[in-house]
Specification:
Number of helices: 7
Strand content: under 5%
Helix content: over 70%
Distance between the termini: 49 Å
Shape: elongated
Number of strands: 0
Order of helices and strands: HHHHHHH
Radius of gyration: 21 Å
Number of domains: 2
Mean pLDDT: 88
Length: about 160
């Protein structure tokens, strides 16, 4: 049985939308001057976001037109992927990861003070932040919970840290 053209085009549009999401995340994670020249334009991020949503929605509409089941399954998969990304980037999951890494490092280097362990943990995860910023973060957030909250905010990119 040969798949219908709207079905193939729908899957292709959804895949291109997901690819645009990955590209957008990659460009947003880069520093401004590390981006390609085209991506430094102030309209680039909003246009790429509009493109990814347009591709996802058009793909789902084409799938709906060709096969309701495949559209529902694809939409469910997109929602699961979105939820997974939200969960992995959440402050609670990041706190759990930081706590796990803290315990492991504390077990391997028992005499190391907490401040140095915190600095090493943050530097391992984000070496491009620089030692001065990391040391200031550890001074400002001396406990694991508040430090993990700040790391999650900075990694997600909130106002002032994009």
């Amino acid at each position: 049985m040969i798949p219908s053209v709207p079905l193939v085009c729908g899957f292709l549009a959804v895949l291109l939308g997901l690819l645009a999401s990955v590209v957008a995340a990659d460009f947003k994670a880069r520093r401004y001057f590390d981006r390609p020249a085209l991506a430094r334009n102030r309209l680039f991020d909003p246009l790429l976001s509009a493109l990814k949503w347009a591709l996802l929605l058009a793909g789902l509409a084409l799938l709906w037109r060709a096969s309701r089941r495949s559209a529902e399954a694809t939409a469910a998969l997109v929602v699961v992927l979105w939820g997974y990304r939200r969960f992995v980037r959440s402050a609670s999951f990041q706190r759990w990861l930081l706590t796990r890494d803290y315990r492991e490092l504390k077990r391997r280097k028992p005499g190391l003070p907490d401040k140095e362990i915190f600095c090493e943990l943050v530097y391992r995860r984000n070496p491009r932040w620089g030692e001065e910023l990391i040391e200031q973060m550890v001074i400002d957030h001396p406990d694991l919970e508040s430090l993990s909250r700040m790391i999650a905010r900075m990694e997600r990119g909130f106002r002032g840290f994009r």
